[in-house]
Amino acid sequence: MNKALFLDRDGVINDNKRPINNPEDFKLYDGVTEALRRAEGNGFEIFVVTNQGGIELGYMTVDELNKIHDKMIELLKPYCHIKEIKFCPDYHKDTGCRKPSPKMILDLAEKYDIDLGKSYMIGDRDTDIEAGKRAGCKTGKIGRFNAEADINGKDLYAVVNNIIN
Question: Which chain positions lie within coiled-coil regions (predicted)?
Fold first, then answer.
């Protein structure tokens, strides 16, 4: 079985002070490339699990979201391989995929033979931590402290370093 990092996207990998509705808006945070290179070098497979309710709300289409994700993959390609990106397009509809539901994590874990007990869900919102806990992962919280998280840090680089050290 493999171990993985399940990463939320907005506020973890990229700046989201403004909504990311097209590829030009997508900007990697400092330290993300180094953090993901180090994580992959230490045997973690990299996945992205992201709520993208802007699709249901009409701010972007699935095709536009895929173009944003293509840009993210291209920017990260020299540093790591993103195994898969899962997104939930729902905002009001309840199809069971929107975090804090663990469904996206559980689906990826089953598909890729991931040992959830050795894996981490890393996010910037309490719903990310809840999804990770419900899936059976350890968790890393970026930004505001969360007592439920296994690790808290100011950014992805700090959280990944804490996991590896």
Answer: none
Which residue among the candidates 8, 90, 150, 155 is catalytic per the annotation?
8
Secondary structure (DSSP) of 71-119: HHHHHHTTT--EEEEEEE--SSS--S-STTS-HHHHHHHHHHTB-GGG-
11-30: per-residue pLDDT in tens?
999 998 888 988 999 999 99
Domain containing 150: what range?
3-164
Structural domain count of the chain: 1
Q: What is the average pLDDT score of the chain?
A: 96
pTM above 0.90, yes or no: yes
Q: Residues annotated in the binding site, as ranges? A: 8, 10, 88, 97, 124
Q: Is 138 helix (H, G, I), strand (E, B) or coil?
A: strand
Q: Phi/psi of residue 31, each to 5°?
A: 90, -15
Q: Is residue 10 annotated as a catalytic residue, yes or no?
A: yes
Query: Catalytic site residue 126?
Result: no
- Domain with residue 132: its CATH number is 3.40.50.1000
Report how far residue 130's alpha carbon sits from residue 70's, in angstroms, rounded to the nearest whole number.
Answer: 28
d(CA 120, CA 136): 9
